[in-house]
Write a structure and sequence with these properties.
9-stranded antiparallel β-sheet, 40% helix
Length: 1469
């Protein structure tokens, strides 16, 4: 069901909520619109205005800044005598300091006091402790509550203060970094000073600052080193290569070719490509300090805002005014690359910089999700305490009427009713334990240390362990429902590798960068080539297009490979997106060998032409570093292509704006250099999606080479009609194949949340595992693949054509027929493995198109980034005519970029296809397996990145965020009708629900970009926003590309506040109304969110999520320092969540339950005892023992299991991720479970009291009971201590480590030591409690006392064991979970009858019998873990990729190769 608010509100696009509702109903979807309460909205609005006006503006003096009239005016001067004034504030511009800490010195204590007493237990004790200080009211002392409360609160405040102090230290390090500013000689820089000392910098405690002062001769100016915090608006700064930009600046000069600076924005927006920044034409004279001093310029720039992709401003210099755009501005957080130096002027500082405007600058403290439930428990117990106090007080009034007023010795001693009720409230206030939060803090500190010391999350390569920076939300790790991940540095290594190529319809694997058994010799690189267009053979094409040829002379010999047909070689490379996909039989070493053997064959010419195109069509700049040739490039894809050409024998040794020089291996240890003149370069842009270079070859021919996306290359081919026809044929074939695959998957078993289970139950109760790789091997929906966009090529759909043969998948080894056509120059026989290259179809354009497009689809589904290469030769006259058109466009002052693109489109026509390339964006180790494991844990994975759409989709495929059979829906505002696009998505999902027999939709992925997201977030698009944010939780994954940091954070916030459960419901759904009602009743909260990233651009997202995880990645350590948790690699996230998350959730939930249970059990006898003392409030227990109860005797029993308990082994949790839903569904702590524990505690307390009273009230003891009340109370106290510790640490703890057993012994032994201590420390005299010598001389010698102790404990243990046994048997029979079918005779018949098979699974929440792994109770898994064979199989499956290690025998015989699992599960109870 989709719930939409404001059905009458407009969405800003002319479609209101009512229209959307009608559209949904027409499509068979029945949404339920929740009407907005106008009174409630009016109250919210007025409250918000009151808060802003009175609290924020009047008290905190934080007024909203009005926009400036014409932007901020900043004059260009070498230095400023006085600071510039901010027009909006009327004061100087804010300093260049940043603050990621949550508190300041002034607001720390107020915020913390408010935060601590917003916790209900603390507030409850505050309300109890204040009246207790009134003399004569309390019977337990005046300060026994308020003083411990203040101590515990201040302890927690001190811990929070320490955590925030560490954040302040990191801020100081960031603000103390160095920069060089242009100043007058003698003014000096801010190297040291009182400010640094004031903030506590010690020697060596701040970043080193360059002490050199560069004086500019003849100007009276110098480049002075200053701290970042001392930069001001208007300062002129100097950057050198690899420097980080300290503030938002306007570029004045760049020491690069054509005055261009290359900027890396990875830390800002996550994009990997370098951006080129150009100095404004009005500032051409600013290349020197003298020029800056002599330039009369003024900048007018926009007010600070968070928009990263737009900048508005202008510069007026020497009477000329030109616009300022994003091309001339560099933001803080960027890094200067490939540029020796640059000069800029500061325009925004500190918190007004773009990166800080996109950050969640002062996030509030995060609270654990379980605190919501614990608050409910506190409220119920507070009500119970009030009811108990009122009931006891009423009992006193009754006793007063019936007995007290007739007792002569009680005359005149009546107690006022108000004192009685307050006294009882104080006496029973410990039902809510005072040390609850402090004990919980101790537990969480222990959990934090356990997490930090886990060697399985230690990265040896970087020497980085896992770290917990916020231990208050450890249990949140066990309840995550959404993971929002950054891409660059988080999922990927930002390392591109050329991996595959398609030439003439054949595929070849390039794995030279991988470690091979034999070293790659120089001979393998030998091409035996003289590859330049002088030796061209003319082919019989209509336009007489000439093809590249190779020299007939062999220049270098290659290591001879056997001419016999060799078996398929294994390769170390395997696709992460499709790990089972068969890779090409031959690699590029074989390609080089074939070219050497048959250099004049048509295929060899095509291959040589392809490699030469890779070496020429790029913008990489070679340079020598430490004696090695390296390349600098604005694009990592181009870098991968150039390095691949280098490995194949074509080395780019020099490139300028005019020429590119190649060093070609000629064999016999000789090399030849060839120089190509660069005539023109038409740059790549997001609109063009292609790059073109025009070169003059050594033979004076003019050669045009183009590379780009297939959607833009295909229409520009000479045979474009044939190419698009074949592309559509391939597309239809893939559609058919995908539909068949989806139908097959619809028949596969599903778990309770629609995913494929890790294990499935067989009829014999054996268990078989599902290979994660197998589930990922299917083909994705082709008609939505962004890497092969045939749908963009033609306005009308192609006619239905026959499906091409699937044998073209791996042409390189599928084609086995055909005779070898040996070259006339071949001196020996060609190995048979190359026979397929002599097939006549290798020269047929139609066949080449079909196979190439099939290869492109295979590359894309493997997560590889694809490019097409095409070329043509130009005549001199043709080039000169075009060059005039292009020159006019380059020099145009109006619409220059548009005219350049139009001129480029003129020449990029009638191209010949060279081939296709596939580049791998290398993922971090274990990323696909981790994502697959998290998905099976019912966690939805979203990817939020600043990169472009095609790149994001490719990475999603390789990381398995997009499954091979995923439906990919792209929401794009530029296509118009956004609300209709969303409705179409809903319609298709609804059709799947109605057509699939499983009623489970296919895996769906929604792709959206930042521009579309901004349109949805517009204030007028309220209905559209509601529709979008109620749709996206129903899909499995979302890919948000080109998103700013603020948009990432807003998206996380929106999902965090979304409805807990949003599902599409078919009108003919088979779900029963009972199950729907139970699901609605169970819906308590939205799933928790987790954000993971590694850069400064991820900080806002990390702060917005319930849990933030930082990775020590390529973008620095800011995320790792500020996030709640830090890990070294993404693969550790699965262990962090599935193991530590579940453990900590179970531990914390058990801690809360056990804490409240023991208080209920312990104080129930005291309440019952009031009947025997006239409801006077007399305590059953001795005062000092009561004081130290929670400190000495019942603390370890909840703290130790809270730290060390492991309900299931880590191997089990990793092998069966479905068990993670235990925390997602609140099975560890919920209202029914809490009530069961409380009722059980109360029943046990009642039983203990009456047994102790009956056995040891003086009637059954042969010894004179001189102990009186103390003996009876001590017996109850001892039973309580023994039973609480035995139940929590022996019976209730699964992982009984030495620490747990030692804690039990210490606690029990400590109790008897305390008895001895009390017996000797009390002074002789008349006391209500005869403590002195009581343990040794009175009740301690009474055998009845000891018999009562042993008998009562034995009875309690027997009851507990009997309950556990019955429960476990009912679990196996499938009768444990209560439901309406539990009362049917058929249920019992099936459970006990001969047809009973998988009863252990129980029922689902709707009363249906379930076989889902997540529905199995923990006790059953604990039994299964005891089997060695099962444990061994779980250990294999727990490793990343370990599923594939389970052999066929295990698949055949069941889980762990054990066919007796059914007997084990049924009998070992």
């Amino acid at each position: 069901m989709i719930e939409l608010n404001n059905p009458n509100g407009s969405n800003g696009n002319g479609v209101d909520g009512a229209s959307l509702e009608k559209g949904l109903r027409r499509r068979g979807v029945f949404p339920h619109f929740v009407p907005v309460n106008p009174v409630k909205e009016r109250i919210k609005t007025r409250t918000r205005k009151w808060f802003q006006h009175y609290l924020v503006e009047l008290i905190f003096r934080q007024t909203q800044l009005l926009p400036s009239k014409d932007g901020r005016h900043i004059p260009l001067k070498p230095y400023h005598d006085r600071p510039l004034i901010d027009e909006r504030r009327g004061t100087v511009y804010i300093p260049n300091t940043i603050r990621t800490a949550r508190y300041t010195v002034w607001d720390f204590f107020p915020k913390q006091i408010f935060f601590q007493f917003s916790r209900l237990a603390n507030f409850y004790f505050l309300c109890v402790g204040i009246p207790q200080t009134i003399p004569g009211v309390s019977t337990t002392g005046n300060f026994t509550t308020i003083l411990p409360l203040l101590f515990f609160v201040l302890l927690t405040v001190a811990k929070e203060g320490y955590d925030d102090w560490k954040r302040h230290r990191l801020d100081k390090v960031e603000n103390a970094r160095g920069a060089k500013v242009l100043q007058r000689v003698g003014s000096g820089g801010s190297l040291e000073g009182t400010r640094a000392k004031w903030f506590g910098f010690r020697p060596g405690g701040k970043p080193e600052l360059d002490q050199d002062v560069e004086e500019v001769v003849g100007t009276g100016l110098q480049w002075s080193p200053v701290r970042w915090r001392d930069l001001k608006v208007g300062d002129v700064i100097k950057l050198t290569r690899d420097d980080d930009v300290p503030a938002d600046i306007v570029l004045l000069h760049a020491e690069g070719e054509n005055n261009v600076a290359y900027i890396e924005t990875m830390a800002l927006d996550g994009e990997t490509n370098l951006k080129s920044k150009q100095v404004s034409a009005a500032l051409k004279g600013c290349h020197t300090v003298e020029g800056i001093a002599n330039t009369d310029a003024e900048f007018v720039v926009e007010d600070p805002n968070p928009d990263l992709y737009r900048f508005d401003g202008r510069v007026t210099a020497n009477g000329e005014t030109l616009p300022l755009t994003l091309n001339e501005v560099v933001y803080r957080g960027c890094t200067l690359r490939n540029t020796p130096s640059a000069i800029g002027m500061v325009i925004n500082t500190g918190e007004e910089c773009k990166i800080r405007r996109n950050a969640n600058r002062h996030p509030s403290a995060k609270k654990p999700a379980l605190e919501r439930m614990s608050n409910k428990i506190v409220i119920t117990l507070a009500i119970f305490v009030i009811a108990l106090s009122v009931g006891c007080s009423m009992g006193y009034l009754i006793w007063q009427e019936q007995y007290e007023k007739f007792a002569w010795y009680l005359q005149g001693l009546e107690v006022p009713f108000q004192n009685i009720i307050i006294g009882f409230a104080i006496q029973f206030n410990n039902l809510i334990p005072l040390a609850l939060y402090v004990s919980l803090e101790i537990v969480k500190i222990g959990q934090m240390l356990m997490l930090n010391s886990d060697l399985e999350m230690y990265d040896q390569e970087s020497d980085t362990p896992a770290r917990c920076n916020t231990n208050t939300i450890l249990e949140n790790l066990g309840q995550i429902g959404f993971v929002f991940s950054d891409k660059t540095g988080t999922l990927t290594q930002n390392v591109m590798k050329f991996r595959k190529l398609s030439i003439a319809g054949t595929t070849w694997l390039h794995d030279m960068d991988m470690v091979s058994p034999e070293p790659i010799s120089d001979e393998h690189k030998s091409m035996a080539l003289e590859t330049y267009p002088t030796d061209l053979n003319t082919t019989s094409t209509e336009d007489s297009t000439r093809r590249l040829s190779t020299s007939p002379t062999l220049a270098r010999s290659v290591t001879r490979i056997s001419t016999t047909s060799a078996p398929r070689r294994s390769t170390s490379w395997r696709s992460t997106g499709r790990p089972d996909h068969v890779q090409p039989n031959l690699n590029t070493r074989d390609l080089l060998e074939f070219i050497r053997l048959r250099p004049n064959s048509p295929f060899s010419r095509r291959a040589t032409q392809y490699i030469l195109a890779m070496a020429l069509c790029h913008s990489c700049l070679p340079e020598i570093k430490e004696g090695k040739l390296e390349y600098q490039s604005a694009s990592p894809d181009e870098l991968a292509l150039v390095r691949a050409a280098q490995e194949l024998g074509f080395v780019v040794i020099q490139r300028s704006s005019q020429t590119v020089t190649l060093r070609i291996s000629n064999g016999e240890s000789s090399e030849t250099e060839r120089m190509y003149e660069i005539l023109d370069v038409i740059e790549f842009s997001s609109k063009r999606k292609r790059m073109t270079i025009i070169v003059r070859c050594p033979d004076e021919r003019i050669w045009l080479i183009t590379k780009g996306a297939d959607s833009v290359i295909l229409p520009r081919l000479r045979m474009a009609n044939l190419a698009m026809q074949k592309a559509n044929e391939v597309r239809k074939s893939l559609d058919l194949e995908q539909q068949l695959q989806r139908r097959n998957e619809a028949q596969e078993p599903r778990n309770s949340f629609g995913g494929r289970p890790s294990l499935t139950i067989r009829r014999s109760m054996g268990i078989a595992r599902h290979s994660a790789a197998a589930s990922s091997s299917k083909r994705p929906i082709a008609n939505r693949s962004q890497s092969f966009e045939v749908s963009k090529l033609s306005a009308r759909p192609a006619e239905a054509l026959s499906r091409p043969s699937l044998a073209i998948r791996n042409v390189s080894f599928d084609v086995s027929s055909g005779k070898a056509l040996l070259s006339p120059t071949l001196s020996h026989a060609t190995p048979e493995k190359y026979a397929f290259l002599d097939d006549p179809s290798i020269n047929d354009d139609a066949t080449i198109f079909t196979r190439c497009f099939k290869h492109i689809d295979d590359f894309a589904t493997e997560g590889l980034r694809t490019l097409l290469f095409a070329h043509r030769f130009l005549t001199d006259s043709e080039y000169k005519a075009w060059k005039k058109l292009y020159h006019d466009a380059e020099t145009s002052l109006l619409d220059r970029q548009e005219r350049i693109e139009a001129a480029g489109d003129v020449i990029e026509q009638s191209l010949e296809l060279i081939g296709a390339s596939a580049i791998e964006d290398k993922l971090q180790v274990g990323v696909p397996e981790t994502i697959d494991r998290l998905r099976r844990a019912n966690i939805k994975i979203w990817m939020l990145t600043g990169d472009k759409r095609e790149t994001a989709i490719n990475i999603a495929h390789s990381a398995r965020i997009c499954q091979p059979t995923s439906d990919i829906y792209v929401l794009d505002i530029t296509k118009g009708g956004l609300e209709r696009q969303i409705l179409n998505v809903i319609e298709e999902m609804q059709v799947q629900l109605e057509t699939f027999t499983s009623h489970v939709p296919n895996h769906t992925v929604v792709v959206i970009d930042g521009q579309t997201l901004a349109a949805i977030e517009e204030p007028g698009a309220l209905a559209l926003k509601q529709l979008f944010y109620t749709l996206i939780p129903t899909v499995d994954s979302v890919i948000c590309c080109r998103a700013s940091p603020a948009q990432k954070a807003n998206l996380v916030q929106a999902v965090r506040k979304a409805a807990p459960t949003v599902q599409l419901t078919s009108a003919t759904s088979a779900s029963s109304r009972v199950s729907q009602w139970l699901a609605k009743l169970r819906r308590a909260k939205a799933p928790l969110t987790l954000a993971i990233g590694d850069g400064a651009n991820d900080l806002a997202m990390l702060s917005a999520a319930h849990v933030g995880v930082g990775i020590s990645g390529r973008e620095g350590l800011q995320a790792a320092r500020v996030a709640d948790y830090s890990i070294a690699q993404f693969r550790f996230l699965s262990r962090l969540l599935l193991v530590h998350g579940r453990w900590n959730y179970v531990r914390t939930a058990r801690f809360i339950l056990a804490t409240f249970w023991k208080e209920m059990f312990f104080y129930m006898p005291t309440e019952l005892y009031q009947r025997y003392n006239g409801y006077t409030g007399t305590s059953l227990y001795e005062a000092w023992s009561l004081t130290v109860l929670n400190t000495l005797f019942t603390s370890l029993c909840v703290i130790v299991p809270g730290i060390w308990e492991q309900d299931l082994a880590a191997e089990t949790l990793l092998a069966v991720p479905e068990l993670y839903v235990f925390g997602q569904r609140d099975r560890g702590l919920n209202v029914p479970k809490y009530l069961a524990w409380m009722i059980g505690g109360a029943a046990e307390g009642v039983l203990v009291w009456f047994l102790c009273w009956a056995i040891y009230s003086g009637h059954l003891s042969p010894v004179d009971n001189g102990g009186g009340l103390f003996a009876l109370g001590n017996l109850v106290f001892t039973v309580a201590i023994m039973w609480i510790n035995f139940k929590t640490m022996i019976l209730g703890t699964h992982f009984k480590s030495a620490i747990v057993l030692a804690s039990f012994v210490i606690t029990v032994g400590g109790w008897y030591a305390w008895q001895a201590f009390l017996s000797g420390i009390y002074a002789p005299g008349v006391w209500p409690y005869a403590v002195r010598g009581g343990f040794f001389t009175q009740f301690g010698q009474d055998p009845v006392w000891w018999a009562a102790l042993g008998g009562i404990l034995g009875l309690l243990i027997a009851i507990e064991l009997a309950y556990s046994s019955v429960k476990r048997n009912l679990i196996v029979l499938g009768l444990w979970k209560w439901g309406w079918k539990w009362m049917h005779w058929s249920t019992w018949k099936n459970a006990f009858g001969p047809s009973a098979s998988s009863g252990a699974a129980g029922w689902d929440d709707g009363g249906q019998q379930s076989t889902s792994l997540e529905d199995w109770d923990v006790e059953l898994w604990q039994v299964m873990e005891n089997e060695p064979s099962i444990r061994a199989t779980l250990r294999k499956m727990s490793r990343l990729g370990g599923v594939d290690e389970v052999d066929d025998e295990e698949e055949e015989h069941g889980f762990g190769g054990n066919p007796e699992l059914g007997r084990i599960g049924s009998e070992r109870v």
